[in-house]
Amino acid sequence: MTGRTMFLAKARTYRQGWSKPELTHLHSAAKLMRAGRTSIRTDCGVTDEGDPWFVFCADETGEIIAHFARIDGTYIACVPFRGGALTGPILPDLIEQFLQQQHRTARGGLGHRAFTRRAAGVCP
Q: Partner of 96 at 20 to 30 A CA spacing, among 14, 33, 86, 89?
């Protein structure tokens, strides 16, 4: 019985979504992107499995710029313009990697829109 109670308590903790510090980091990244003249909007939620997700979308088209998630304690950022995922144990470090790559891509004249895919109802 005790094992089940602990498991349920752990499941409830994960189902709460992002912590306030995590959301602060993600929203700070959005603010930096907007300061860099990228018009974006964000959305977030929790999967049926209890894993939190957060997306940055182009404001005008709804195209996904990046999709962040926390799965089993590991942070993942799926970044279409990168052609793969970034992963790591520390969210601020992962966000910094994403912002640096996003800045380099935009500066190189390719921009994120050439490589993004339309969000299926995530950022309408």
A: 14
- Angstrom distance (rounded) from CA 109 to CA 81: 12
Of the pLDDT bands very low, low, confident and very high (cuts 50, 70, 90), residue 15 is low
- Could you list the residue range(s) of the whole structural domain that residue 29 is in? 2-114
The domain total for the chain is 1
Q: Is 119 a domain residue? A: no
In a domain, 28, yes or no: yes
Q: Does a structural domain hold residue 8?
A: yes
For residues 59 and 4, which has the higher predicted lDDT (pLDDT)?
59
Least confident of 5-9, 78-82, 88-92, 104-108: 5-9
Residue 13 lies in a domain: yes
pTM, entire model: 0.73
